[in-house]
Amino acid sequence: MRLTRYLVPTLKEDPKEAEIVSHNYLVRGGFIRKVAAGIYDFLPLGLRVVKKIENIVREEMDRAGALEILMPAVIPAELWQESGRWDLYGKELLRFKDRHDRDFCLGPTHEEVVTDIVRREVRSYKQLPINLYQIQTKFRDEPRPRFGLMRGREFIMKDAYSFDADWDGLDRSYQAMYEAYTRIFKRCGLEFRVVEADTGNIGGTDSHEFMVLAETGEDRIVSCPGCGYAANVERADFKTDYPLSDMEMMPLEKVHTPSQRTIEEVSKFLKTSPKKMIKTLIYSTDKGEVMVLVRGDYDVNEVKVRNIIGANWIELADEETIEKITGAPVGFAGPVGLKFDKILIDKSIVNIRNGITGANEEDYHYVNVNPGRDFPIIEEKVVNIRMPVEGDRCPKCGTPLEFYRGIEVGHIFKLGTKYSESMNATFLDKDGKEKLFIMGCYGIGVTRVASAAIEQNHDEKGIIWPISIAPFEVILLPTNWDKEEVRSVAEKIYGELLQKSVEVVIDDRGERAGFKFKDADLIGYPFKIVVGEKGLEKGIVEIKSRKGDIAVEVKIDNAVEKIIDLIDKERKKYLPE
After folding, report:
1. Any idea what the Cα angle at residue 61 is, between residues 59 and 67, rounded to 5°?
2. How many of the other CB atoms lie within 10 Å of CB of 279?
3. CB–CB of 453/60 below 8 Å?
């Protein structure tokens, strides 16, 4: 490919909206362009990267026995109404009506559609197991799209769905996908961790996330260096101690705290530690309001709260709801004297002695609050519902947990009968009896993989692509295209590389050498061959790797052989085992 015939609109300046490295370099390198919030054009270089990731995914899915299909992006409401998700999914589901006033949505995921296919086409246990997958554009109307391809509204996803006759079969299908995903992300050159995760609005029982380790990751994960336990913080279990103080209980006292609402404000005003505070939060859910008590220096794990009460959604209650329940504005809620049926008490507050909490009255708090004396501690309502923090220990072996940030690039779920039951998807077993399909689902964010790879592979100059997903493997850089000798040698090497099926691009633009080098480093080609006047005087060209670990001078006649050898060695690092 010749750059004079290619669309590579690189930029010198950082785009204003770019908050992370991958977004910055994808725009500056001419890979993507913004159309609307969270929606992007993929220019030629960007599409080449996406297609390479898709090919790796496709090869490993096929290797694992999955069958590729393609389902529609536009889905009729009836299917989502059957599963019950039409009203539960939330505003991320983009709903619309056609000209006949019928309800449709843009598919954010395809459990309903694939279940409909299988219930119509698969009738016997003899046709099982089966795993169907697609690589397709999805749309989720994210409330706050950001970070370029990392959290977009429109994105390319590989989603697969397994159907088994029993739970043992699901375990086998799940393990096959676990292994396939491990191969996929290794081939994409990613450093990742597999962690236990919450199933979210997809539903089901067990699930695992494949997390690319990066400081810019939106997710936090915990990992045990002792036994290897790892989980998303929303799912993580942990051990910790809350020793009982031997301090004498003091009389309960109401104190004036004018305009002091937050934990920080109240603890500073009363000259005490947030660890003495009993934080009282009111949440609204589809199961009604619930009160949650947690120590002042901790954050509530809303996912665990949602799962405990069996809710589909959860959010902090609005000011009107809080005042209706507590009789006071936001910031003054507390459990003392407040009668409320739905309450969850974090283990962290049970042993607090002479603590502080809101008095359910504007500008007042209680001091010397003692759980069990001043408000009831009901054993079945005491649970572990806070977020883990530094110092917490592994639930399996007791080793202190380590914390990382990660980018979710893949997620696998054991759905069980969640969709087959609601959609009456059955098959006939060997005894002729109708049974529900046992399902699993498995997703990979294809376009997010591209961003994650950049977050792990870059420097101050630009991207350093793993060769397996680089747009091209090598760029030929003639330093002065106007010089006949330079142009002639570059064309000769270029032609020979094309004949050898090397993915090569030649920078035949009449630009300065420095400009070409900066563009090449920004885009991140794994190798470059520099053809310069000084080198030609000695009969040599330079070969350099983008990683910086290779810089050699070779004779012109040996250049093709040498670069092919280097490329082959690099390719082998990313081949399937």
Report:
1. 110
2. 24
3. no
Q: Is the pTM of this model over 0.90?
A: no
pLDDT single digits (tens) 122-132: 999 999 999 99
Nearest to 243 by CA among 275, 220, 204, 270: 275
The stretches of 410-557 forming alpha helices (DSSP H) are 418-422, 446-456, 484-499, 513-523, 533-537
> Cα separation of 88 and 126, whole Å?
35
Amino acid sitting at position 72: P
Residue 210, Cβ neighbours under 10 Å: how many? 27
Rounded to whole angstroms, how far apart are CA atoms 482 and 461? Answer: 27
Is the separation of the CB atoms in 452 and 22 below 8 Å?
A: yes
Phi, psi of 141 (to 5 degrees): -80, 75
Q: Which 8-state DSSP code applies to residue 360?
A: S
pLDDT in tens, 23-80: 999 999 999 999 999 999 999 999 999 999 999 999 999 999 999 999 999 999 999 9
Coil, helix or strand for 501? coil
Cα 183 from Cα 86, distance rounded (Å): 35
Interatomic CA distance for residues 321 and 299, integer angstroms? 21
Structural domains in the chain, CATH included, are: 44-73+108-236+403-455 (3.30.930.10), 253-383 (3.90.960.10), 474-572 (3.40.50.800)
Is residue 112 within a helix (H) or strand (E), and if so which, with residue range? helix 111-121
Distance of CA 429 to the CA centre of its chain: 38
